[in-house]
Amino acid sequence: MTDDRVFSKKHAPLEPWWDRLLVVLIERGAHRTVEAFAPGLSYGEIEPILAASGIAPGTVSGQILNLFRCSNGFKEGHWTRLFPDVDLLSLQDMISVRKMMLEVVGVRSGYPSYAGYPAYGFVPEYIPFAERDGYLLVTDMRAGSSWGEVLKYDKVSADEDPTKWTSLTYMFDELIAAIANGSEFDGWTADVIDGELTWDLEGGP
Fold first, then answer.
1. Does 1 score more than 50 pLDDT?
2. What is the DSSP code string of 84-153?
């Protein structure tokens, strides 16, 4: 793949990938999973929520901003496993989780200013979009060529996990392929049971 194509995919709007995901889920019969997603928010709805939270302007941008325009988490009273071991967050959930992580394990200064380098703690430029019990998926919004990279963060090893994706679009490519074709996604394989997407750990019972 040429550098231009990599750049284009890395910075492309996420909406076409989200639409492909929904199509694949429907084709696999996971209609309950699709029905669980809350509608996305408009820019006009997102901006005042971010401003009220105190998050610096421009911190939530690019594909992570697109994600909240695609879906604002789950509808009230609904839940589904889009990802194997973490749960999709709404915009307000993202703000709450980010605030909690900064308060508990936040690193405010002295960490690398460029994306792609471990900070050994949670930094303000990490924007979570999925979480469960202290395990997160975040986008790294620090400056540099790895801006927008998706990484795993957990309460044990912080941001030292080597599992990374170049951007949300690259991660969604793997996720969509796993759902459509049964290929592996981060050590898990997808199945659909009673209209819901489920995940089995590779090598598990």
1. no
2. SSSEEPPHHHHHHHHHHHHHHHB--SSS-SBTTS--SSB-TTEEEEEEETTEEEEEE-SBSTTTTEEEEE
pLDDT average, residue stretch 61-75: 97
Residue 2 in this model has a pLDDT that exceeds 80: no
Q: Give the other-Cβ count within 10 Å of 138's Cβ.
A: 25
Cβ atoms within 10 Å of 89's Cβ, excluding its own: 26
Residue 21: closest CA among 97, 80, 62: 80
Query: Whole-model pTM?
Result: 0.93
- Residues listed for the chain: 205
The Cα 154–Cα 176 span in angstroms is 24
Whether residue 100 has pLDDT greater than 90: yes
Phi, psi of 134 (to 5 degrees): 85, 5
Of residues 45, 44, 74, 47, the one with CA closest to residue 58: 47
What is the amino acid identity at position 198?
Answer: T
Q: Provide Rg for the chain, Cα atoms.
A: 17
